[in-house]
Amino acid sequence: MMAHLPALLIVVPLLSAPICLLIGRGRFAHGVALVVSWVTFVMSALLLNEVRNGGAISYHLGGWAPPWGIEYRVDPVNAYVLLIVAAVGALTMSYAKASIDRELGQGRQFRFYTIFLLCLAGLLGVTITGDAFNIFVFFEISSLASYVMISLGPDRRALTAAFNYLIFGTIGATFFLIGVGLLYQMTGTLNIADLANRVPAMTGNRTIQAAFIFMAVGLALKAAIFPLHSWLPNAYAFAPSVVTAFLAATATKVAIYVLIRSYFTIFGPEYSFGSMSLGVVLMVPAIAAMLIGSTIAIFQDDIKRMLAYSSVAQIGYMVLGIGFATVLGVTGGMLHLFNHALIKTAMFMAMGCVFYRMGSVRIEAMVGLAKRMPWTMAAFVGGGLSLIGVPLTAGFVSKWYLLLAALDAGMWWIAAFILIASMLAIVYVWRVVEVAYFSPSPDGAPTGEAPISMLIPTWFLVLANFYFGIDTRISVGAATQAAEYLLGAGR
Predict the structure, then answer these.
(1) Tell me, what's the pLDDT at 489?
(2) How many CB atoms lie under 10 A from the CB of residue 375?
């Protein structure tokens, strides 16, 4: 069984999706999705442990050896991302039932669980495959599922948001596929490890340069890197609460992983960050995202939309770390990828609890809410502290590594921008805190907490933010190992 875990990680959710559809009843479909999500998490944890102790795993589908056959490859980089995706999927599904029943109504729940498992399988497939074309295939599976899930939102504007995401996602995928096609034209292979051996000898070729640029643009669209982020705010704001929590923690993170894999493994850091100056290309929009995304978030009255613009800013932190192309910088970027998944999942789950009780997540719905939903608002504040980067939270640890990377590179002004962006986060988080805690509760407002099934996963993530802010051995250790692998043995 252990030998086949890389294949089972994809096969189990992929084959379970039609089972949910055939069951046709929300309660039983949720049970199947819940069990599958947790089984997937256990498998990803076992793979990470195996890789950290025994080195990279190469799984040959159908027994065909690469580069002729399709390879699933697990190394310290993608094992780390696989765990993030699977953990968020399991916790989101544990949270989902009451929220989905409330927002989708009767008769559509089983369809949601079907699509959710397809999306989960697609994201895991993107991360684990060692074949460049299969990255595109799995991207399309996860993206098509994402479009459908977003369109299920209770607001009719969810349909427009899903269509907008479809347009940008299709353009991004097309650009990425053109880049892969150009690489195949020049090298005759699609295997990532084989590409990593052949591409460096051709880096002076203009076709390789064109592939580099096409892939960069396509992945920037997929990852919502500023200024190619315009699909993200509406997608997060109008999707069902469960969908927002899941996608905010996984979809853009997987795209950033593919960017890392492409430019550190296929093209190599010397070419990507030396000859093609990718570091500068990434750092400029990253800093703009940190400052502009945070500033726009301050003026939002819809809290999900506020957190969406905050996500644009947080993606900037991740991209900034990658742009340093140093062990410290990449460690900070990978660490923030993990920490942001914890932070945003918790905060979007808290807003899902608010929507469950209030039917709205606008700022006016938060008036005096701390007295009526104390556990929910405390969870939001806990996530907000980590988002700001308060010491003893996970958010502080990743920002600290980014600061160290900036100072180590002699770029003190970038360290200043990181601090300014963190100050801006205080402003928009405080807006919610002020209204919820320091305003009188209106007469006749709904009272009562969200169901315990929603609060437990939310608080698990909040407590995880504090745990990983205090004990950093697992998170920092895995991120450092990934960074060293990318900059050393990863080629």
Answers:
(1) 45
(2) 17
